[in-house]
Amino acid sequence: MLFIKKRSKIAVTAGLVAMAFASSVYAEVSLKQATEIQRSLLTLDTHLDTPANLVMPGFDIMQRHSYDHDFNQVDVPRMNDGALDGGFWAIYSPQGPLTEEGYQQSRDTAILRALAIHTMVTAHPDTFGFATEAAQAAPIKAAGKHVVFMSMENSYPLGNDISLLETFYKLGVRLAGPVHFKNNQLGDSSTDPDGPKWGGLSPLGEKFVAEANRLGIVLDGSHAGDETVKDMIRLSKTPIMLSHSGSKAVYAHPRNVDDELLKQLAATGGVIQMNAYSSYLKKLPADPKRNEAFKGFIAMMQQAESGEMTAADYDKMQQMRRKIEHDFPAVKATFEDYMEHFLHTLKVVGPEHVGIGADWDGGGGVEGMMDVASLPKITQRLLNEGYSKQDLANIWGLNALRVLQAADDYAKSLKTSK
């Protein structure tokens, strides 16, 4: 009798294992299923550098482009393919010297970039909806349009006049970071070759935080040095965002964030949006010949950013880029490398504090995910890792909107308390 019971227990255990196996196979989500699930969610990427393309001669956001041909990664047809509803479209202007002349030139470029974003929306009113409040995003999606929030990457254009931040707020900016690749008048960058200058935020940078809070602008800590991010978390009255960053525990690059700082970010309600910039995801082999070939291309890019490029010049620049890619093809990180950062970060702070900011049209993209058409791969992988549809809803948009709402609520509370 004892022997029979033992056999029965083994049989039951084997049956449970078989059922679990069958269940796991059944639960595997296909890319098609993941895409449909993603379409049911509000999907936002918090760092789209695509406005840089809007000012290029011949670029049309409504037409399908190809990364292999013209290296663009975002347009309306591919947003539709990738079930991307929109996001934060970035104003970026290159940083020059910390002089009044440098500030003024950058300010003018930034304003023109903001106007280019507005022009995109007004030229295609059935395709885009401009948003300045978190609550506007869902109705824009429901109307079948793409969501356009506006952000500012690097607040160097403000110069020494923090009151200019209100001008950009009135233009629609709701997310702003103090620094980019180098230190500036507001604080320390994570990647300045000369190292820290201020030990975090500068005194002017502290005023920048207060003014952003007063206006209802979310503070963006991507590109900022760790001490700068800590200062932002400490001083800000509302949660901050890292609009396009990665995990330093996975790859110790200065642009990434360690687990301790991630926990500080999450403890104050903040979010990190996962970046897909290859050289921040893993160590890539050096290619001096490619770097040398790119010098001429970068010079042409700087000409384009100054607004002095003709359609013929732009075509010539693209031909140069295609030749470089043919002669010295880039080694990129893979989709699995990207997901390693993503999954680690989810384990550290949970799906209520993680989102997506892949740095499209700003250098982002990995093998297996080179434009926005491939975004459902993220949804597929997260679902198959066991994350729920609600987790995906948070990751794809609700977390970022929560932070935006908190900033707006705080700014309004200041007005009502007077």
TrEMBL record:
<dbReference type="Pfam" id="PF01244">
    <property type="entry name" value="Peptidase_M19"/>
</dbReference>
<dbReference type="GO" id="GO:0006508">
    <property type="term" value="P:proteolysis"/>
</dbReference>
<dbReference type="InterPro" id="IPR008257">
    <property type="entry name" value="Pept_M19"/>
</dbReference>
<dbReference type="InterPro" id="IPR032466">
    <property type="entry name" value="Metal_Hydrolase"/>
</dbReference>
<feature type="signal peptide">
    <location>
        <begin position="1"/>
        <end position="27"/>
    </location>
</feature>
<dbReference type="GO" id="GO:0070573">
    <property type="term" value="F:metallodipeptidase activity"/>
</dbReference>
<protein>
    <submittedName>
        <fullName>Peptidase M19</fullName>
    </submittedName>
</protein>
<keyword id="KW-0732">Signal</keyword>
